Amino acid sequence: MSSTPAAPADAADRRAVKPVICYPNDTLPAPDLALYSQAREGAAKTGEVLVTPRDAACFEVPAGHFFRITSVEGPQVGDLNLWNKNDLSERFYSGKTRALHGTHITTGERMWTSFPHLRPMATIVADTLGWYGIDEFGGSVHDVIGTRCDPYTGNLLAGSQYHHCCHSNLTRALADHLGISPAEAEPHVHDVLNVFMCTGFTRDTGQYFMKASPVRPGDYLEFFAEIDLLGSLSACPGGDCSAEHSSDTAACYPLLVEVFAPGEGALGDWRSPPRNGYDRSHGRS
Ligand SMILES: [Zn+2]
């Protein structure tokens, strides 16, 4: 056991140093929310999928279309994975999205893709839980700080063999969608956007916490697809995540995913964002 080292004489001064934002994001390319909103007004629904509780389902969204995730029947949290439909190696990058936007995301903020692409893949255009803000515990909704509930951590902490964690749900859904085995699908599953989940870090120990989601049936989170997307959404076995998330104990409800196509020409000369402009030489010629 290591003991806590003695604090230096100027400890208070060192702690009093003011923080600076790591990535000021005022130079991020801004989404044209007015254009998206105009395009959404004339958009027509093209499909939907109802995600079964404690399971996941895949869906595809062409670039320039919208998709909406809605709570139905009861409070339920969703774990969302997104890929470039044409290249699964380009996928949602939770860590960089967190570094750019903060621990939780809402309207006007974006889900960014992995290196070397690093471009927006989806922009949040509506969030009926946008009123929640940050509560007295430091909790908020739609986080990019969690990973996804998974059977490995359950086994590590409790020796369990539980098969309906979001990680396994996402793995099975992707395998079924692509016609590949779970073993082939699993490496594509990645850290999620925790849709509707209410989370934060405790101030005293810095631990990841969850609490009952404020989501109610009718609440939704809606996105604009910046590139051709393959999505997978798991209706977490934690339900509203008020207590447990790796068992069949919690009450769970379905989640609805709907896709909408804008009218012809509604997006004007909008185009998918290009891949990141870094030359990838890494200092070698
Ligand atoms: Zn989960």
Automatic annotation (TrEMBL):
<dbReference type="InterPro" id="IPR018959">
    <property type="entry name" value="DUF1989"/>
</dbReference>
<dbReference type="Pfam" id="PF09347">
    <property type="entry name" value="DUF1989"/>
</dbReference>
<protein>
    <submittedName>
        <fullName>DUF1989 domain-containing protein</fullName>
    </submittedName>
</protein>
<feature type="domain" description="DUF1989">
    <location>
        <begin position="51"/>
        <end position="230"/>
    </location>
</feature>
